Protein: Glucose-1-phosphate thymidylyltransferase
Organism: Thermococcus celer Vu 13 = JCM 8558
Amino acid sequence: MKVLIMAGGYATRLWPITKDNPKALLPVGNRTILDYILEKAGELGFETYISTNRFFEAHFRPYAERYGVGLIVEDTLHEEEKLGTIGAMKRAVDELGLDDYLVIAGDNLFSFSLREFLGAYDGTTLIAVYDVGDLELAKRYGVVVLEGDRVVSFQEKPAEPGSTLVSTGVYVFPRKVMGLIDEYLSNGNRDSPGYFIQWLLSRGVDIRAYRFDDYWYDIGSADSYLEALKTLLRESHIEEIQISPYSKIIPPVVIKRGAKVLGRSIIGPYAYIGEDCLIENSDVSDSIIFRGTTIRNATIWRSIIDERCEIRNLELRKSLVGGHAKIQRGE
């Protein structure tokens, strides 16, 4: 078996913060999404590969070297050129050969052990499913209907979901199913694995489900990203920083090297402050602030602010701010 982590998308739903940074490398606490996935995959002892694109190749190479995994790079530089998940899986098969593949979406944070997941694998296609508990929310995902652990229906982003169980982007495809990818692609559906699952069911392929509880996050929106931070940030990590005696830190937080917390500031709970940020006379909570950003006389709540921004004299709530932005209210 081989492990294939899919990180070839351009994450347009999270632009502008992912315009120049791959979603799999967004920080969640003191680690990136990819760190969480690679640590889980590393317990298995299988050959592991990251599938990405030429635009983001240089971002992933240090991770490949650090974790001792391979890189498969599709020759694309833009969203409109991308192969899609199934197209990228075909490229992996062409490069690595037919085998059983554990395929993991690179924007996925999940609570279960991959070793336990593979314990449910018996040579039949296996997908991990999670109960989101809300039919309206289920409309955003691939919806699964089960009889026991057997998948009897799969609907990709349905208008009327048949259940609240959704596919989470973790699959095992046996060798014989990977061998069907060429035939599937001849039908023109490349991007979503959900359509591949539907197609397999229509051909009578047996598919089983592994249900799990606790947590799952598809980091496809600012809300899901911030909720993942709240779940996974369980203890503070504070590097070499400058902090005023009049400022207060409410754990858990991550504050990276070179940050300055000045004046009467309150950081936390659930705040990520990147390298070389300056926070002065400001409150930051439930938020992610990327490197080199300056925040003065502001309140930031449930917001994501990209690198090298300047935010002054205002209150930001539920906001997504792109890199190098300057936003201020008059003095």
Notes: The radius of gyration is 21 Å. The domain at 2-231 is CATH 3.90.550.10 (Spore Coat Polysaccharide Biosynthesis Protein SpsA; Chain A). The mean pLDDT is 91. The first helix runs from residue 33 to 42.
